Fold these 4 entries.
Entry 1:
Amino acid sequence: MRQRASAADPLLASFGALLDVVRGLRWRARRASRIAVPGMHPSRVRGTSAEFTEYRPYRQGDEVRRIDWRLLARTDRAQIRLSEERAVTPTMIVLDASASLAYPEDISISKWRLACELAIGLAAVAHAGADPVGVTIVGETVRTLPPRNRRGVIGELIRVVAAVRASGDAPVAPAVHAALRSAARVVVITDLLGDADDVLRAASEGVAAGRDVHLLHVIAREELEPAASVAIVHDPEQPALRRPLAPESRAAYERAFATWREDVARRWLASGAAYRVIVTGAEPAAHVIRRIARDEPMLAPTTSRA
Amino acid sequence: MTFLAPGFLYAALAAALATIALHFVATREPRAVALPTARFVPESTTHALVRARRFSDPWLLALRLLLLLSIGAALARPVRVPQRERIARVIIADRSGMPASDTEVRDSVRALYRPGDAVVAFDSAAHYTTAVDSLPPAVTSVTGSLSAALVRAHAAASRIRAGTDSIELVIVSPLTAAEADRATPRIRATWPGRARLVRVASNTTRHGVAPTVTWNAGARPPRSVARRVVDSVGAVTAGTDVLVAPFERRWEFPRDSLRGASVIARWVDGEPAAVEWPVAGDSAGRCVRSIAIPVDSTGDFVLHPAFLRLRDRLLGVCGAGATQPDSAVAASLATMVAGSGPLARASAFPPGPSASSPFAPWLLALALVAALLELVVRRRASGVES
């Protein structure tokens, strides 16, 4: 445990500054919530709050007390007074902690660090809007904190995330399925180098069920621009996959990787989910969180040779 | 110590340098690094290799250098350098019928000869020898060829060049004009130095005596018989003179008629066209000449320069068709053969083909041992790597 804590120290130190930067941000849900608990997001429930919206004729089954008696007295028609409700959006963050996220090995610039900062920052923003937030971390073991909106839940999330080291190759799709059952907004932070098709299928089902699904596709700059020296590269999740990366094969690699990224983006956007590509080192995590909260487009991933 | 063929040693040194460079350019498999997107790298069956700038396999390199340098040194034929003070001689001894006395030639050669010298005995051909006592007997029936002797002298100089500073060409001969031909001046010019002439008396019995010539276009020449089939021939040669013209060949010299005779002209197919034989019992050296070359006296054929040269040779004095010796011609010949300037430097001659090195076999044996050791070390190294 002591070793884990010391390894997570850089993460812990960075989260404090991140929480300060994102304080005050509000993250509106992209879809109206079906939950009746009052909150800040639009709700599909038409209630009786003070914010009047419209009248509609009384139907059998409506509560009698919701009839506007004054209008009935003037017009002799029974009308129900409707108002726009605001509700909370339980938010679940699914964080991919597979071995491919621990790249590059320098943790200060790794995909895992960026993913952790995005998870904590978005959780803090959602929690600031009174939304219950939870997290599922899919590493060698699956660790889940259900959505809560009590005080101190962000600190609890930080401790859980900081204690995890990215390793293993567990599938993310089951965690996405579980998150969609317990939350109206699901944020999946992954590099899509595992069960990408299953994750997309689960997300599509969630979107069809009215969930607000976000996918944050994390890419390392070193994956876009591998080192120029000749090397035997291997997949940390598939040690048997070893291939020589030489200058003559680099162009083919970049073409194949770009084609795959374009295909992934096209399929995710077609699913109705919010898809964003986030490259390490391209923007600070706080800027990325601000763009997500404001539903602004991300910076397009570019390479220095582009 | 010097090398007879240093080019091989230079080539071995170049190969050794290349070997050293190759040992510095070792290859290894590049380092393995993690790349989560490795699946997008195209599959390749070739192995990626990178150069490692480090010195590898010092023992293997040492053995390979030893192997290369041993072979190169063996092929370069190292020899010990003796004291470079001697002047070696190439003595050309005339063994043809031109000298008056065979003893005089032998005595002259014996007086000139020193150990390490070379002797070239020549008649119509030239022979090389290193022993003065092994001179071949004189062939009195032929005229000597100075050109052949000079060519052989070059080869002899190449054989004795090791350990000498200069090579002196000594010619023991009467130097008659008959012994020179048109190529002689050019061949002599290739000898890079002056020559010493030791003139011996010429065989006057064979020179200066006019022959009795029978050259009748219609009658049968003496000692000849009529051909069974008269044919035609395109040319006739006498010495260095050639006359190209259509001749009707009516006569031929039987083999028996040539006994004791000398052929002084031949048809182009080698058949004798004119012969001479000495008059028996005549101490003056007179001879009889029979010419079976029909000449059409009509027309301007007999005015042609080639015919005039052939005529002079056929009508010349006795002595295998030699032209009449002329003191002026002999003097100019002697001047030409003697040349001028210093003696020829030994380094001007290429090493002889049979020059041997006493070290070469040992160096080749050393190369063989190095090759075997290299094989053992290489196999051991590959066994360790595997």
Entry 2:
Amino acid sequence: MSTRRTRGEKHEHVEDVLRRRLRLGDPAAGEEGPDGGTVAAWRRAMDEARRAAPRGPRGMAWLPRPLPLAAAAAGAAALAVLAWLALPTAPPEQGVQKTAVVDPAPAAATPGTWEQTETAQAPDRSSPPAPPAAARGEFLAPAPGGTAPSVASGPPAAGPGPEASRPVPRGPRLLQLVAPGGTRLVWTFSPDFTLPDQGDST
Amino acid sequence: MEQTLALTNPRAARPEAGVGADRLAELFDAHHLRLYRLARRLAGDPEAARDLVQQTFLRAARRPAALPTGEPGGEAWLVRTLVNLCRDRHRRRRVRQAAVLPRAVGRGSDPEARAVARATVAVALAALPPRQRAVVALHYLEDRDAGDIARLLGLARVTVRWHLAAARRRLRQILMPEADT
């Protein structure tokens, strides 16, 4: 008669012995559980904690789940993108590059006229929306050699004068809008950019 | 006992407590005793077990909206919270018990053998990570199967079986030294 156990029988044996020995030394065996005083203390603490939990619009208890930090960050990023898209800008034209910078001293900019932007000949949304009260538009004179100018200048001649008298800049031309908050939008027109309605004005 | 029963029915005394308080009181009445037993097996000493149970219900009271509705969900939430608190405590302390030489668990019924058995089992359970300890306690001491343990702890069934196998290897070294020789 062999006493060798199969693998399954050995596993069962180990399970059985472990179960018996663990139960023999079970830390919770033979205990009645917490006494009435302990249970009462638990309940008191639980009730106090529940009353102290923040509720209503000023607290977080109205949320079904705590707001994850990642979700909050994603929401803030989405709001920032929406705020950027909501800026009153015309769609970019071919040959026009738009940049935005924060002007540290917006008061130094010279106000111009909005008529200058209409020369960009944009489609249906080309004409800028009604600007805020303090928004200003202006042309910046091209710097010699085609670099951006450091000082803003006044608008070019935009009156009804002869077309030939208008100076044709050789370098990139810049159009700048200054928002009330100090944000400055700058369009950079390439030297090759032509205005289709040039010469049509009367 | 009468005192306990009187205290476990607070809804009649405080009708303004609300639905959340009712749910919390129901969970407390239904599970505080078995949670204490589980905590006793996980924590080792009664004081720590009482602290763990209190922390579990405090966490439920502070976040009543986090409690799932339905009985199995509430029980599982409480067990998971208790095990997580035990794991936090384990991490904080980082005190490994001194390597007490395991002795064969007493088989007799005399008090000395019982005390030796309890001490040895306490050492064996303390040698396990908290989650494995919870799996062992639920499986060997509460007779729960792998599926039930998986539901209570929020684990996959295969993970529970893995924890059981790993714990079995460790427990054999401590509780069945004769099997390894």
Entry 3:
Amino acid sequence: MLKHRIIPCLDVKNGRVVKGINFVDLKDVGDPVEQAKIYSKSGADEICFLDITASNENRETIFDVVKRTSENCFVPLTVGGGIKSLEDINKLLISGADKVSINTAAVNNENLIKESSKKFGSQCIVVAIDAKQKNDKWEIFTHGGGTETGIDAVEFAKKMEANGAGELLITSMDRDGTQKGYDIKLISEIEKNVNIPIIASGGVGNLEHLFEGVKYGKASAVLAASIFHYGTHSISEVKQYLDSKGIPVRI
Amino acid sequence: MNIAIIDYESGNISSVINSFKAVCNNQNIKIRIEVTSDLKIISNSDKIILPGQGSFKNCTESLLKIEGLKDTLNKFAIINKKPLLGICVGMQMFADRGFEEIETKGLGWIPGNVKKIDNKNNQFKLPHIGWNELSFTTESKLFKSIKEKAHVYFVHSYKFIPEDEKFISSRTNYSEEIVASVEKENLFGTQFHPEKSDIVGLKIIENFIKL
């Protein structure tokens, strides 16, 4: 039976790990390679790096981080942040990333998802959708949540599937950093409308939130940052908990 | 010993290289690992890794673009019967035919076809991404010390259906029974990615190196 994946996410800035509350107020809390090793050893099913300020700053540091991580961790590594072109994707893959997560450029350049999934395969193209609730719908934002687009999140998700995305990483802007749990309505609404795997993100504060993401959001994978990052829970604790609630996980 | 990882622009092979290097370092095994499309180096190597990502069609096309590569692989694996490990689409290409995008001829090493996984009217998401269990059908040197139901990492939407079940060495289940690995004498193939399958995957790589 296919297991639900638990994905710790590390926000990386200038080669260092940070975790933001609602995407601002960053605190420096460590070396990404060391963190990734710890996560991998404790049973992480995948590791995610988001180079959060990459759109505006020098990106070279992330290649070195990815290279060193991939030499030490033998679980899938997803890297996102500031990816604009086929060349950016290629450089990350060569550095050792297994998948790339594309946010702003997926909105601004429709061809990028089409072309990259054709060139590198859908298996390595993750489209990251940052969405905020507006009335009874969700609108997507780009540039790390800074730019409003007026685009409907569900419609956009369907389009990205058609363009060749292999997975969708759905982050609720309203919940991110709040520790109030995933926006289950958002996750499940998108899940119902696409036939590719969904990764739930944004808002995890306790073990039950992860359970809800799988059980009610119907997510294939659940991503969290703070609870792992600040040591609130370990990956193995999460897995034991989910297992006890009847969710299939790799133990 | 020399191991050649075939470089035919079939997608990302960094992880394959890293995992083989890590196994050699951890186990203190002295091996030359070369990432190459040089026919001479390939012919002279002791073992071959045939990776593959993306579509069946793209991979076979890329392979055929390198003049003489198909014949060199044939000679290595079928005539000289030296060990070859195909990973993901690298394994799928062992088949006679693939049906991704358009019907495409494979290497024809193990009779069979490559077809899309039945997602049971969208009940199952595709690609099949993540950790799934291995269920062994035969005893294989490749899976020495690997326990039944061990988890490995899959990412694919197409499956290999060999005509003769005797070439299937393990299966997994996702909406239906899916071939997880094949074996025919010196030919080994895994649908999953040993290079991304944590400790279990590294053990499988070690087993291949030690064959």
Entry 4:
Amino acid sequence: MAIIKTTCVTLLLFILSGIGFIYSGFYPIGADQRHHPITLWVLTTLREQSIARASRDLEVPPLDDPALLLSGGADYNEMCSSCHLKPGKANSDLSLGLYPQPPNLTLKPEAHDHSHGKGGHNDPDVNARRQFWVIKHGIMASGMAAFGSTHDDGRIWAIVAFLQKLPQLNELQYQIITARRTSNHNPN
Amino acid sequence: MNTRSTLLLSLIVLSTSTTAFAHDPSEHKNDSEQPNCEALNTMDHTKMDVNDPIIQAIMEQCGTHHNHEQNHQDKSKKSAVNKSDQ
């Protein structure tokens, strides 16, 4: 009986001190702070496990169509490059200032220092699935927004298609592919 | 459970409940940039593979598949992209 009582009291104290800590204002909330390694592990694992589970049944459409690259490229340049960078741009206010940091998507997945848990890098389908899911749903409490409410799946897959090629693009190729022309080209 | 766990728990609660970062509307502006196709001519065309979707996308943006007849004035600009497209 006594042990149950002690446990309950300890637990209560524990919860109260947790709440007390939250209200105390001692938690350093600045994005220029870094997480404790344990917190970082918890958050990273939470993120990767959640994305892996939520995206596992997605079917990846063919992504090699050049039309997808053009649609996805223009979208990427306008909506994503400020955080995820582009060839010739190694950092930006947002890429440096956000925490968690937006991964540099011009680097091959295995090159950017951004843990993905296991499996993600080697299988292109797994990689494409998780990218699609992240773009559509975003990542809570990070700078990564959910684009699914404003963009349909086809448009998001086009961005995914572009992301597969992005690490291979040089500055010029990037400029040409991502330029959104106002009028339709090819008059003849 | 100890204070460390308390700390950890509060950290998780806090870090998962903070509001998301809002998009800067200026990122969405459409500056309808024109593709810099002229600069293509200075590229090493021998490295281009017409089966590569990247090259195909570039050719589509620059209308290169129409270029080999009604070419630019500068013949030296004639590229591997054009040739392999015939």
